[in-house]
Design brief:
Elements: H1 2-9, H2 15-22, H3 26-38, E1 58-66, H4 72-79, E2 85-90, E3 97-103, H5 106-119, E4 123-130
Antiparallel strand pairs: 1-3, 1-4, 2-3
Length: 145
């Protein structure tokens, strides 16, 4: 767990640095990381970016509701083709899906939301919220298995 937390905090950390932190020699740390990769626990290494510095400074979430006979998977597949869509969550409850978007402007936001609405004939409701500030936990997440 400590090795994973170290990599999540900084995926560029060297094996020797992680080994010192977890009080092991580099060889076992390297083997454990390899086992975690082989087991699919570690699926890749990534970076985080400051969206305002790469031109997508406006973030929003759009709630979507569909008619009962709508194939939500088709909407998810369509949404995933839009470069402005960062994430699609299908949900239980009043809202069927939540789409997280990153765009350059309010006009771009309107264009993307309109595309989402038009694609799904079964879309009966959308509500878009603009993100003012964001925080996320860059640690392990545990879901139901």
């Amino acid at each position: 767990m400590e090795i994973l937390e170290a990599l999540q905090a900084d995926a560029r950390r060297g094996i020797s640095d992680i080994a010192r932190q977890v009080k092991l020699s580099p060889a076992p740390v390297r083997r454990r990381i390899k086992r975690l990769e082989d087991a699919g626990v570690i699926t890749g290494y990534t970076i985080t970016t400051d969206r305002s510095k790469v031109g997508t400074g406006l973030q929003a979430v759009t709630e979507m509701r569909f008619t009962g006979d709508t194939d939500i998977q088709q909407i998810v597949e369509f949404a995933s083709t839009l470069p402005e869509v960062d994430e699609v969550l299908t949900l239980t409850g009043d809202v069927d899906a939540l789409v997280r978007l990153s765009v350059d402007s309010v006009d771009d936001l309107q264009r993307v939301v309109n595309r989402l609405r038009r694609k799904g004939a079964g879309v009966v409701y959308t509500k878009t919220l603009i993100v003012i500030a964001a925080w996320s936990r860059n640690t392990l997440t545990h879901g139901a298995s």
